[in-house]
Specification:
Blueprint: E1 7-11, H1 15-27, E2 31-35, H2 38-47, E3 52-56, H3 64-74, E4 79-84, H4 89-97, E5 102-105, H5 110-142
Parallel strand pairs: 1-2, 1-3, 3-4, 4-5
Helix pairs in contact: 2-3, 3-4
Domain Response regulatory: 7-121
InterPro entries: CheY-like_superfamily, Sig_transdc_resp-reg_receiver, WalR-like
Pfam families: Response_reg
Amino acid sequence: MVKVPINILVVDDEKDFVEMLSLRLKDDGHNLWAAYSGEQALSALKTEPIDVVILDIKMPGMDGISALKEIKNRNPVVEVILLTGHGAIDTAVTGLKSGAFDYLLKPADYQELLSKLEAARNRKMEQEERIRKAEAKSLTRKTGGL
């Protein structure tokens, strides 16, 4: 079976974590971009074809929840998987209510992360397909079915 790469943006203020996770995901055939703050993530999303964002909740400056809300505001179909520490489950719930696809506790199980990435990308693709169909229907109605 051919594995389709996922375009992933990893966002965390811990550079070693971002680099190690990015290397592992690249080794698995995915396309990776890195950001070390919420602001950098928003900048990357303006220019890169991101499918899924892996976003740390606790970061200096713009925290993960603020970044999530802005990501979903600017790019509603981009899916976000939150990373949180054990003491921040309440914050993860807030993230889910704000549009996150799911969350993982740090340190995350790598196989569980891969599974969630695949599911998030699939949901993004389904949303994009529904949008295309709705736009096509709208265009057909406007042109009188031609």
